[in-house]
Every structure is written in C-alpha cells, then in structure tokens.
Amino acid sequence: MLATIGVKNLADLFEAVPAEYRFPELNIPSALTEMEAADELAGLADANSTAGDDLISFLGAGVYRHYIPAAVDHILRRGEFYTAYTPYQPEVSQGTLQAIFEYQSLMTNLTDMEVSNASHYDGATAAAEAVNMAVANFRGKRGKIVVSPTVNPQYRATIRTYTQGMRLTLLGDDPSADLYAGPEALDGLIDAETALVIVQYPDFFGRLTDLTTFIAKAHEKGTLVCVVVNPTALAMFKTPGEMGADIVVGEGQPLGIPLSFGGPYLGFFTTRKQFVHKMSGRLVGETVDSRGQRAYVLTLTSREQHIKRERATSNICTNQGLMALGSAVYLSLLGKSGLRQVAELCYHKAHYAADQIAKIPGFGTCFTEPFFHEFAMCGPAPVAEVNAFLLEYGILGGYDLGQDYPSLKNHMLIAVTETNSKEEIDTLVEALREFSEEVANA
Amino acid sequence: MTNIPSNLNYSDTDEWFDPAAGRVGLSDYAQAQLSDIVFVEILVEPGDTVEPGKAIASVESVKASAEVYSPISGKVTAVNGDLPGKPESINTDPYGTAWLIKVEGGKADGMKDATAYTTYCESRAH
Fold first, then answer.
1. What is the ipTM of this complex?
2. pLDDT tens string A150-190
3. Backbone angles phi, psi at A210, to 5 degrees
4. What is the CATH number of the domain that holds B47?
5. Which residues of A touch B63 (CB under 8 A)?
6. Residue B4 located in a structural domain
7. Is residue B1 part of a domain?
8. Are residues A90 and A298 in contact, defined by beta-carbon separation less than 8 angstroms?
C-alpha cells in the first residue's frame, strides 16, 4: 500500500507532521482490563444524583420529568425500530414510515395544525427552523425576525447561532426588557419587513396568555407567527392552532422521553398546509400502492437537500426517529383523556405548591398571570444559596432565572409535574420555611 | 415524440419564448425529463424586470426540483396565477395553459429556433 502511494516506509508517510508532534509522550494511565474499566466508570456514574431517583426534583425550564409507561421503552427496544436509520429507501421501510405518519398525525391533533414534519433534533432547533421557513416563504424579501424575550433563553441562543450570516435583523431578543409586559409589547417591532415573530406558550416563566389578538395583529402586517409550546399544556388549554398560529414548534421530551442528563430529545414542528412546500425536514404521507393497498411514502422529498441542494429550506433533513416513535407510543397509551389527566395533575400540584410557597415570609410568586405547571418564585437570597440549602434536604431546586435575566436575580423557576407527590411538595415548602427562618435570624 | 412548435424560440435550459405573445414557459422536452410535476412557484411579480439567467420559477416533480430561468430581458407584465393550483398542466399542456410569465419588450436574440432546438434535444437523447 505504501508503494502504491509512492512512499518507502511509515516514517516517510508522516513526514509532513513536524517531528516533535509525531509520537508525543501522552500523560495517560496505563491500559485497564475490561473489568477494571467497568469498575472505574461505574464509580464515576455513582457520583451522579438522578432527578427523581436520588433527589426530589423541581427543576424544569424546558424539560420535564413525567411518568413514562413501561410499554414505551419495550416497544422502542424492538430491533425493527431500535437500529433503523432515517430511511433513504423509504418504500422498503413501511413500518418506520407508518410510525412517523402516526407521530405526525398525533402532533397535528395536539397542536391543532394541519401538517407536521417527521421531527427535528430538539425544541430549540425546531424553533430555528421556523425562521428558515419564514425567510423562505417570503423568498428573502422580509429580513426581520422578532423574538420575544420570554422565549426559552437556550432557544433564543440557538436562533442567534442559526441566523448568523443570513443577513437577518433579530429584534425583541432582549433579556433586560420589561418581563412583566405581555406579548403586545412586541407589536411596535412588527412591520411589513417582519418575516416571523416567535412567542412562547406557556412562556419561559410558565405564564399562559391568549395570543389570538396578538397573532391577528401580526397577520395584519403579513407577518407569520410561530408559537413555541409545551405539548403537555395543550391537552388542557386553548391550542395555538385555535389562536391562529402559522407555525407551532416545541420540545417533545415531555411526551414519554426521559431526562437522560440532556438528551436525546425531540423537536416537533407543525404548520398550515399552505406552507408545506417551504417546511423544513421530511414528511411522510399515506397513499395506495399498485395493488390498491395502503402504503406510506416520503412525500415532497424533492425539497430535500440531496435534490435541492443550496435551494433547500434547511440542510438538516434528518429526523429524530426513535424519539418521535417514543412520543407516538406515549400519546397512544395515554390517549386524549389520559394526557389531559396528566396536564391537570401537573396544574393542580403546581398551584398547590405556589400557594404554599406564597405563605412563607420572604418567598413569593412574582407574576400574576395564569400559569400551567411552572412558576417564577422570588426569594430572600441568591438562588445558588437556596438551592445549596435544598440539596441538603435531598431536593433539586429550581432554575436560576438571574443567569439569563438581570432583573430576575433571586428568582427561581419551579416546575411541578404529576411525578411530584404532595409529600414532596410539602418537603420543599418545609425546607424553604426553614431557610426563611434562618435568613430572618441571621 | 417531443413536441416542438415552430413559432417559438428555445433556450439551452429548455424554456420557450413566444415573440408574438411575449409569453415564457417550459418546453415539452423539459416536462418529460422532470416527469410528474407536483409544485410550481413563480418567483417574479408583474413590474419586475427579468434578464437571461434570472430564476423566474421553481418547479418540483416527484423526483426532482428545477429552477426555470428567463430566456430573455424585459419587464414582467403578467404571471400565470392559475398555474400553482394545477402544476400538472405543465405536463399536459406546456405550450398552452401552462405558460409561466408574460414579458414586454423581450427579444429572442441568441435563442434557438425549432429546428436547432430539435437537433439540440436529439443530441441529448443518449
């Protein structure tokens, strides 16, 4: 092989690499046996404290711990699903295509929209793809994107990354804005140059606002509206489809996907039929084969990057197949009433927690709008101190809002789901009460 | 058999231009190559100016996607608003109801006539 490429020996081959970098002394320990390595890794894993198993968790901020029926994992681990990659020969993968088709149908039902793609990597990338779609819809003639400051900070960061170099103007993405204002505070930023406005529902602080009037006003300017949603909340509250949204995206993790220290998760993306040719990602459709039997196909594949190249709306056309299947199984097992029951449990437990916390001196809820299962709690000390105190009680406290919003120092976001028992909530309240007393006595 | 009307002019990228009516469309050869067309988006509006090489429409078939370029210079006076609702008419009636845009002041300079275009299509048949 060396002779074929015209070098005499191995040393010749590496001549382009400076001598001192060729065989550096690496400061690593000597090799371990498999048994020793397994022991060492298990020791490292033991250092983790897992939400729910080791700690009572009230941490949310975009991902939420929900009960996952055992059947979800059982079905996911079937070989037919577990190893399958996004099908490039779609017609031979009828099972995979049908699973994606069912997922799409469930997502359009949940969001009250007409079309769903086969999914994206996570909620943040789905939101960024909404920007791509809106820009493509106006063929680049509209160059402004308005993003509400109450959209998840990580989503806003992802949108900023995606839009670098696209010659777009991002407006509204300002964490020092008045966070007590409603979405109508964005009205003044929307004009005939605005391709898309992105708002969140419930917003990052858990607040629920009817967006119908806001969306109608944006439509008067010809602007498209994308609503980032929590899918669980939609089982209980007015849907973005009903409010007139053009695009609905969100994190599908609450639908049967474990926290898993941050991923893999699932981005869902639904829109109206009129935009289907501008939608990023892939789409599975149902048809009949030459014998009249039901069959599934990848519809509109000509838009995809391997055909349309630089003219494609997006160059990430793969999907999060296994996670999408997981959420389809989860939704099928729970059904419409089951998901609503989950949402109601979350809602009532979160409101119980908020009511109890508001009674503790020095603590309170800072916003007055209706909320779903998460709320902003203000406290008498930096969030890091409160959380360190809670950890001693085996409680994983809430998300520190001060790290993203300068005006919300000492504010934490508390999430409560159906997995939090009344005893757990009472333990949190008791711990906060003790913290409050310590602060008072200090 | 490819239909190549003798009263039209043709571009190397398979657009036709009717100097009498000022209309532009996609040739029979092009529609046959693309197969079943499922989507058309006209990218220009009346009042826009076009020039050779400027994309005027985007066409998608079940297996491919193509841009349609203007074969001539001039000012767009009309676009075929009915076409996006029935893209398949490019397959069935490429020189009639499936016209794309109408251009004022366009000249067929540098375009092929039907005879030259027939030879050009045959040369690509292999």
1. 0.75
2. 999 999 999 999 999 999 999 999 999 999 999 999 999 99
3. -70, 120
4. 2.40.50.100
5. 302, 307
6. no
7. no
8. yes
Distance between CA atoms of A295 and A92, rounded to whole angstroms? 10
Domains of chain A: 56-67+335-441 (3.90.1150.10), 70-330 (3.40.640.10)
**B109 or B103, which is more confident?**
B103
d(CA A47, CA A40): 11
Q: How far apart are CA A173 and CA A160, in angstroms?
A: 9
B interface test, pick of A141, A277, A283, A302 with most B CB neighbours within 10 Å: A302
Residue B98, domain member (yes or no):
yes
Q: Chain B closest CA to A257's CA: distance in Å?
A: 35
Instruction: Kindly report, residue by residue over B45-89, the tens digit of the pLDDT.
Output: 999 999 998 999 999 887 788 899 999 999 999 999 999 999 999
* Average pLDDT score, chain A: 93
Nearest neighbour of A302 by CB, restricted to B43, B65, B67: B65
In a domain, B2, yes or no: no
- Rounded to 10 deg, the angle between the A383-392 and A422-441 helix axes is 120
pLDDT in tens, A181-226: 999 999 999 999 999 999 999 999 999 999 999 999 999 999 999 9
Inform me whether the pLDDT recorded for A253 exceeds 90. yes
Contact A277 B43 (CB under 8 A): no
φ, ψ of residue B75 in degrees (nearest 5): -110, 135
Instruction: Kindly determine whether residue B65 and residue A139, on different chains, have CB atoms separated by under 8 Å.
Output: no
What single string gives the DSSP state of each residue in A382-415?
-HHHHHHHHHHTTEE--EEGGGT-GGGTTEEEEE
What domain range is B37 assigned to?
Answer: 9-121
Say how many domains are in chain B: 1
Rounded to an integer, what distance in angstroms lies between the CA atom of residue A95 and that of residue A188? 49
Element (H, E) at A217: helix A212-220
pLDDT at position A86: 62
Q: Indicate the residue of A277, A302, A308 with minimum beta-carbon distance to B61.
A: A302
Bridge partners of B40, per DSSP, are B59
pLDDT at A54 over 70: yes
pTM over 0.90, yes/no? no
Nearest partner of B63 among B27, B29, B36, B30, judged by Cα: B36
pLDDT of residue A90: 76
Residues 6+ apart with CB under 8 A from A260: none
